[in-house]
TrEMBL record:
Superkingdom of source: Bacteria
Keywords: FAD, Flavoprotein, Oxidoreductase
GO molecular function: oxidoreductase activity
GO biological process: steroid metabolic process
InterPro entries noted in UniProt: FAD-dep_OxRdtase_2_FAD-bd, FAD-oxidoreductase_2, FAD/NAD-bd_sf, Succ_DH/fumarate_Rdtase_cat_sf
Domain FAD-dependent oxidoreductase 2 FAD-binding: 32-522
Cofactor requirements of the protein: FAD
Protein name listed in UniProt: FAD-binding protein
């Protein structure tokens, strides 16, 4: 039996187990619907399927949560949510659609995007019905990458950027789950509790290794490799996995070594555990940012980026789907986050490439800036400030009330050996830029700031500032700067039927009994990410898959010879 070529910290995926008669195979567990991956998408799929009255089992390689629990807990919702109305914001599904059509660039059909927008209010209300709280307090100062505690509704994308706005007034649609700190854990805790309350049956520390298909190609279950519950191996596995997630931001290399130890425990102590899923399987294990082989194959330019996600984001769901014949798309699409807000005054500087040429509107959302930085500029760029703007940015970073993960890297970037020059020409020489290119970039910026010309990249007047007070500073915002990490997460996934979430084969036909949701599937945020869009899509696509798989009529498998022992481990 061949396995995929995966690094030691990723789950090994085997070719499907082919069965001619499901009754002749020994099953360790049976259910109507098996959900593989207990993050936000998996939880939403399980809850929706359970609401249709079917028996649901949800399996996870760890103890649940995944990237959703590590996120900021922001759900992109609009069209007139209760929170928007309380804040005095006017919004409509059409205005939301017009904006997102610009951001998504046709990654899903217009009808699917329209449905996503029209269901947005109901989906947020659905989350609230399961205990997740939302509120309407908005942060001062307009735009931020993540609001401080006490603020829960904000402009989480490019809504305030003139080049991205439509005919309707911009509306804040980033709904941060009420809580303290990064609120993804709060949102997930409510979904986790709701699953248990609804009667969803969990199967933890159980990594899916292969799907089981009948002789018609229908997915009828999965083979998981499960650690013995309560064993020392399971306890150590849980402890090391939790430590890897906790310290990823500060010590990624150390956490990679922890993940290797976690995988070693699985190889030594996990045993096969087969689950019969009478109506099928939902794959919801996240993306593949932690799979070096897949990153090397599909998005090699992003291998140096800081990984945004959880250990389970190793592409296991993607690889399981592909093993059963599912097609994929958008695997080269990666969201790279180069936020330069806060400090709030930073976008008044200019971002230039290694030659000194300006290449973007500095006020855009971090992923909108990160994409051209990575794909057009080789991951290398400078943020250029003059003395006046640098002094203001330092004051804001110190006293602006930002999160430590916003203020500390900003201070280090400005204070820890930035390139410096009394004049623009001296700065260019000190940083390896072309003198003429940087001088022209500053001259054109200053002309636009004075109102003498239009800004070449559409920067709004409120974000323009004359940069003419030396000394000048070049802050390194390149992907390789360790003190200012440039995070990334994968966006592509399995192709799915946009009405049901069923996984599609290369001919565009549904694979019976197989569904996908969240970042395992191609979805709303798969072209370019904005904050809250992935969690919103987890709710949308998770509920879609859970409802469709629960409502389908499952035909009994045909009788025949026993399963093919040559493909059994």
């Amino acid at each position: 039996m061949q396995t995929t070529d995966t690094p030691s910290s990723c789950s090994a995926i085997l070719a499907p187990l082919r069965v001619s008669d499901s009754h002749t195979l020994k099953w360790d567990e049976q259910c109507d619907v098996l959900v593989i991956g207990w993050g936000a998408a998996g939880a939403c799929a399980a809850l929706e399927a359970r609401a249709n009255g079917v028996d649901v089992l949800i399996a996870d390689r760890f103890t649940g949560g995944g990237a959703s629990a590590k996120s900021g807990g922001v759900v992109y919702a609009g069209g007139g949510t209760r929170q928007q109305r309380a804040a005095g914001i006017s919004d409509s599904p059409q205005a939301m659609f017009d904006y997102l059509k610009h951001e998504t660039c046709g990654v899903v059909s217009d009808s699917t995007l329209q449905r996503f927008c029209e269901q947005s209010v109901a989906n947020l209300e659905w989350l609230q019905s399961h205990g997740a709280p939302y509120s309407h307090e908005m942060p001062p100062g307009g735009k931020t990458s993540y609001p401080a505690d006490g603020y829960f509704l904000y402009y989480s994308g490019n809504e305030l950027v003139p080049s991205h706005t439509g005919s309707q007034p911009p509306a804040p649609r980033g709904h941060r789950t009420v809580g303290k700190g990064q609120c993804g854990a709060v949102l997930y805790a409510h979904l986790h509790s709701a699953c248990l309350k609804a009667g969803v049956r969990p199967l933890l520390q159980s990594a899916a290794r292969r799907l089981v298909q009948d002789n018609q190609g229908r997915v009828i279950g999965a083979e998981l490799w499960r650690l013995p519950p309560g064993s020392e191996a399971a306890k150590t596995h849980a402890r090391l996995a939790a430590r890897a997630e906790r310290w990823q931001n500060l010590a990624p290399g150390y956490c990679d070594r922890l993940r290797q130890r976690v995988s070693q425990l699985e190889r030594e102590h996990a045993r096969p555990y087969r689950v019969r899923a009478r109506q099928g399987v939902v794959l919801s294990t996240g993306g593949f940012i932690f799979n070096r082989e897949l990153m090397r194959e599909h998005a090699p330019d992003y291998r140096r980026n800081f990984k945004v996600g959880a250990t389970g984001c190793d592409g296991s769901g993607l690889r399981l789907g592909q093993s059963a014949g599912a097609a994929s798309a958008g695997l080269e699409r990666v969201s790279a986050w180069r936020f330069i807000n806060p400090p709030h005054c930073w976008p008044k500087g200019i971002v230039v490439n290694r030659e000194g040429q300006r290449f973007c509107n500095e006020e855009v959302y971090g992923a909108t800036l990160g994409q051209p930085l990575m794909e057009e500029q080789g991951g290398r760029a400078w943020l250029v400030l003059d003395a006046r703007l640098r002094a203001k940015a330092i004051r804001q970073a110190l006293f602006g009330g930002y999160w430590w993960f916003q203020s500390l890297p900003a201070l280090m970037l400005m204070l820890c050996k930035p390139r410096k020059g009394k004049t623009a020409a001296q700065l260019a020489k000190a940083s390896g830029m072309q003198v003429e290119a940087l001088s022209q970039a500053l001259q054109r910026n200053n002309a636009a700031a004075r109102g003498e010309a239009e800004d070449a990249f559409g920067k709004s007047p409120g974000s323009r500032q004359v940069l003419d007070q030396g000394p000048f500073y070049a802050c390194d915002i390149s992907v390789g700067n360790p003190i200012f990490p440039l995070g990334a997460l994968t966006l592509g996934g399995l192709k799915v039927d946009e009405d049901t979430g069923a996984a599609l084969d290369a001919q565009g036909q549904p694979i019976p009994g197989l569904y996908a949701a969240g970042r395992t599937a191609l979805g709303i945020p798969s072209h370019l990410y904005i904050s809250g869009l992935s969690l919103a899509d987890c709710v949308f696509s998770g509920r879609r898959a859970g409802d469709a798989i629960a409502r389908q009529v499952c035909n009994p498998t045909q009788q025949g010879v026993a399963y093919d022992t040559t493909s059994a481990r």
